[in-house]
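Cont'd.
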Amino acid sequence: MAPPVTEDPTSNAQPDPSVHRALGLTDDEADEIARILGRPGNQLELAMYSVMWSEHCSYKSSRVHLKRLPSEAPHVLVGPGEGAGVVDVGDGIAAAFRIESHNHPSAIEPYEGAATGVGGILRDVFSMGARPIALMDPLRFGPLDDPRSRWIAEGVVSGVSGYGNSVGVPTVGGETIFDETYKGNPLVNVFCLGVLPQDRLALARASGTGNLTVLFGSSTGRDGIGGASVLASASFDDEADDSDKRPSVQVGDPFEEKRLIEACLEILEAGLVVGIQDLGAAGITGAASETSSKGGVGMDLHLSEVHVREAGMEPFEIMISESQERMLAIIEPAKLDQLVAICEKWEISASVIGTVTGSGRFRVLDRPDGDVLADIPADSLDDAAPLYHRPMAEPADHADALADTAETLPAPANATADLVGLVADPSWVYSQYDHQLFLNTVEGPGGDAAVLRLKDPRTGASTGRGLGLTTDGNHRWCALDPRAGTAAVVAESVMNLACVGAEPLGLVNCLNFGNPEHPEVMWQLSESVDGMAEACDALGVPVIGGNVSLYNESNGSNIDPSPVVGMVGLIAELDRRPPGLALVPNTTLILLGGPGTSLSGSAWAWSQGHRRGAPPAVDLAAHAVVADFVRSMVASGRLLSVHDLAGGFGPAIAEMVASSDVGATVDLPPPASGPRPPSHVTLFAENPSAVLCAVDPDDAAAFHQTAADAGVPSRTVGAAGGTHLRIDHVVDIPVTELRAAWRAALPDALGSGTLQ
Amino acid sequence: MAARVGVVLFPGSNCEHDTIEAVRGLGGDAEVLWHGDDSLGGVDAVVIPGGFAHGDYLRPGAIARFSPIMDAVRDFAAAGGPVVGICNGFQVLTEAGLLPGALQKNAGLKFLCATATLRVETTESVLTSAAQSGAELRIPINHFEGNYTCDDETLAMLRSEDRVVVRYVDNPNGSVDDIAGVCNEGRNVVGLMPHPERASHDLLGSSDGAVLLQSLLDTAAAGV
């Protein structure tokens, strides 16, 4: 006998369209729900569909494109679609990693937006059974001369620091970029890496009729109602209005999360669960429906059993609340006592809120054996979400724009001053992050890539191997040509890993784009996916997970296409620290690969207001040869310093000088072929396929021979040492002056205050 | 027989495994002591590690001092047993009244993770007995509330009794008199903000912390 349904689903009364529209569902989507249910959805059901079918949860605009990304390799244990991608790193150890965006919440409430972004990505990783060991945070803000952008930057960095440090996971890298395109719509992406014994791998699958659905962690409150659907799937118009959305931003509690990590890993280590899923966007609805859908089973949930933060919460509030620090597990009844004991030890609450059923239905009841408040096919929230082939259109003037290169810009009046203006010490940001916890950090933030010791997660014993980690993005290249630009970003990541001796294992991406209802934005997204697929195929890097963030626009203006990639690589033998950027006096400076030859899309061209032309063209086959060589030379110990040229030749040597307090005298190298361009072109043109490195002068001749044997162009460009940075006849600056400007750039700009 | 070091784990602590790893790397035995227990299980030395005990929501260390194990730590210290508080552990020891002074927010009002240079000011403590007086050590700091403060009378006492154990060479957080660590009157309880366990391996950039943890192990072993 079926229990009664409170809102009679058999009623044929015409539903009020204002209900589903207020929830963000289109009329077509409401019709589809009615078709699935055989009746109009009631308010609770519509609320659940609205969050699950939101852009943020369903990827309805991007899924048709994401399928083109290569995701397979022999060492990939878990690909896209789970909490995190997982790769085999040897000895029965696996690495799980993922990147997520928290752009919209951070625009509204920077501290909590960033903090809960950290919390969310951590749960994605430890819900797989992995202990999170590192975070990275690629950040993009509006220009430094804008007080609101400074306020957002300060708040976001404090939020990452406040949550990440306190929860006890080091932040070992990231990026901080300031540009006009992010004014009003910052990008806060957060990457997390965890390690686990492979036999502890846990998946979000429910199975076994009669098994229990257990919710543990923080209580469920009214915070973050519709955070994903309200915030992440809408754009910003007016700053004054944004404060209205602040109640949709979740509030984080890192101490709750820390205890949840310890309890969760103890529960998984004891083998107590059948399946487990963290609660993220769409709250209980998302976690419960995804575990049942993936497991091919039904589930009954009992709202009276959910531990709530306040009395009188509506069913839809409980079901879609995005209260933080919660986890949902499916367990056999016999193991409940053990799970509860572990939760009690760590002082976190646990409630049995439902049971796995064989019905194939996902039902919400007000209490066990009580009224049925919602009754829908278990897979319809997840699998049946709409798929949109949104219209795409290449911008009409794209060909003309590509032909308008930055070489037409006049040479700088003062190349030294322009060069100094392009470099900034990021330590103002990363000194606020604990980047050393767990005694893994061999190379922390500030270099080309971070390097961690890889220890056995069960014994803590060193494996002798290491992991290299990097996050990269370049909105300038992608704005000019999303396909070539995205390929160049992937190439840069591979080179950054090579600079620390790491071979790529996998990539995760965060595709930050504008409004998908604009055909040009969909074209950017599609092109970017193709560029990423081409580079990943050519360079042998599987895409094991990702996240899409759309509607990044403010005041009607879309952000530049901003795909961000996080890449993890393996260092086969980590027996010494990688060379790093710092120069060593009296060493020979050698360029591997050629200098950049195109000014378009460079930071310098952008600073001159030139936003057209083509980004650096990457020959992926040649790139792989250089990267392989750099990796092998780092492993050999012959490199004494190294830095990639993705930022250009001038900025590369300037950063090496500034970070080490050692001068250098170098000549601008000629291009591989053709006439020599004006000096400022070689100085500022960017090339992700080249590196500047230092070797012992006695090794230089042999080194060039080794490079030649490997088919890598190499050229001595100068020497490290002295009190000045001198580049040909175009740059001459005392090291002390360069270093002081580099160190002061960020603190001075941010010290101008955040009053608006 | 190797000395046994007990590392107290409060909910919210996060440097317990690092401390254990560094102690074991020096040949010592180390184990976790749960904050809710009331016994130290016969260990030869106690370390209160870094982290955010009980979330540090009220004031760092303010709640941790009420954890059941702190009574056992007090008794152990009173009997002359070696106790070291690192970072949050230093904050806990000041809140518990086992060390004088307090730790307030850094002068720059920002969290600070960096490597500091410390000068060993006295070798008469459980943490510096194996070090050279005047030696400079590169040890990471990682704190928001690391700005040591005390009243003038206490400062005068710490100086006259040679109880400033380590000082910063270049003060990063505004601590009075550049103080990075102090000891109690019996010199068996030491608290410091820098993290010796993070300077335990050349791969990590410094192994200068080894001499401090070795001092603790030596002291502990002598008491066995």
